[in-house]
């Protein structure tokens, strides 16, 4: 069974809830699939927060920390979190825990300095999330998106993300006047990774919006539809299968936007 998390928003970016199974159509490699499972209940999530504490974040670290704390506070009892910090290198600050206090304590002592190993941080998050206890898995990246110190390349990370069944969200704390080339490329990289997985990137206009955005992402993760289908193509060829979810919206609704992962690799031989 292929399961796809789907978020639907209206033209103002607000969540649209209350849709039914008949409002959705699922396609794999262009062929329509029969939707066999449909749910929209709030299920426990396993979430990794990937937190940028490099030098370029120095003037944004306080607000970013508040955003992460706000995100942890909106947790459900069965949710579990881990925390990865990165500057010159990525490190696991806390492995999976349900204790929000513990995570908040670990965040208190993050100072911003050094280079930005963002890709390494994402890689560490992807390897850590494999130990998740919940079926639903997500990463939240809080960063200005520039990378200048990773062992992994952007292309390698894209490939790992395609292989992982995890939704990625990002809060992009960009400078209005981005400096070096890697900072200018940050936004498009974060957009790429999040869209591929059915998540999205929220660019922060003012630092004061950070906690609100964190709450919004938390709400979105907990108000998604889950569609399940058995792929018509049963070949175990290890190839990329493209997923497209379309809507048959109820009459009278404005144009809606659908977010879902772009595909998955079929099992190999």
How many strands appear in the DSSP assignment?
14
Name of the CATH superfamily of the largest domain: von Willebrand factor, type A domain
Largest sheet: 6 strands, mixed
Helical/strand content category: alpha/beta
Cα shape: globular
**Secondary-structure element order, as H and E?**
EEEEEHEEHHEHEHEHEEEE
Placed side by side, the strands forming the largest sheet appear as: 7-6-5-8-9-10
Please give the CATH class of the largest domain: Alpha Beta
How far is the N terminus from the C terminus? 18 Å
Which stretches are low in confidence, meaning pLDDT under 50 for 5 or more residues running?
none
Annotated CATH architecture of the largest domain: 3-Layer(aba) Sandwich
Tell me the number of helical segments per DSSP (H or I, 4 or more residues long). Answer: 6
| CATH topology type of the largest domain | Rossmann fold
Q: Into which percentage range does the β-strand content fall?
A: 25-35%
**Overall mean pLDDT:** 89
The amount of helix comes to 25-40%
Return Rg in Å: 18 Å
Structural domains: how many: 2
List the main descriptive attributes of the protein structure presented here.
single chain, 269 residues, alpha/beta, 30% strand
Characterise this structure.
With 269 residues, the chain is of the alpha/beta class. It folds into two domains: 2-40 and 224-265, no CATH class; 45-221, 3-Layer(aba) Sandwich (Rossmann fold). 27% of the residues lie in helices and 30% in strands. The chain contains six helices and 14 strands. A six-stranded mixed β-sheet has the order 7-6-5-8-9-10, with helices on both faces. A four-stranded antiparallel β-sheet has the order 4-11-1-13, with no helix packed on it. A four-stranded antiparallel β-sheet has the order 3-2-12-14, with no helix packed on it. Helix 1 (61-73) links the parallel strand 5 and strand 6. Helix 1 (61-73) packs parallel to helix 6, helix 3 packs parallel to helix 4 and helix 4 (154-163) packs parallel to helix 5 (181-197). The protein is globular and about 50 Å long. It starts with a strand and ends with a strand. The model has no long low-confidence stretch (mean pLDDT 89).
């Amino acid at each position: 069974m292929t399961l796809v998390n789907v978020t639907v928003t209206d033209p103002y970016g607000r969540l649209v809830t209350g849709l039914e199974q008949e409002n959705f159509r699922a396609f794999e490699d262009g062929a329509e699939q029969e939707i066999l499972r449909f749910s929209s209940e709030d299920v426990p999530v396993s979430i990794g927060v990937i937190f940028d504490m490099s030098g370029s974040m120095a003037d944004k670290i306080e607000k970013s920390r508040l955003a992460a704390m706000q995100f942890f506070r909106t947790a459900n009892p069965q949710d579990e979190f881990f925390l990865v910090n990165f500057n010159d290198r990525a490190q696991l600050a806390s492995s999976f825990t349900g204790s929000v206090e513990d995570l908040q304590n670990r965040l208190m002592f993050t100072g911003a300095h050094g280079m930005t190993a963002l890709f390494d941080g994402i890689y560490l998050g992807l390897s850590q999330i494999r130990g998740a206890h919940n079926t639903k898995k997500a990463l939240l990246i809080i960063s200005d998106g520039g990378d200048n110190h990773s062992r992994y390349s952007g292309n390698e990370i894209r490939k790992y993300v395609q292989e992982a069944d995890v939704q990625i969200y990002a809060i992009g704390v960009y400078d209005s006047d981005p400096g070096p080339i890697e900072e200018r490329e940050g936004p498009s990289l974060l957009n790429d990774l999040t869209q591929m997985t059915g998540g999205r990137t929220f660019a922060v206009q003012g630092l004061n919006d950070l906690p609100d955005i964190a709450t919004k992402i938390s709400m979105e993760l907990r108000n998604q539809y889950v569609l399940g289908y058995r792929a018509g193509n049963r070949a175990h060829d290890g190839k990329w299968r493209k997923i497209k979810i379309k809507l048959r919206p109820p009459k009278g609704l404005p144009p809606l936007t659908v977010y879902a992962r772009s595909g998955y690799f079929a099992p190999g031989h």
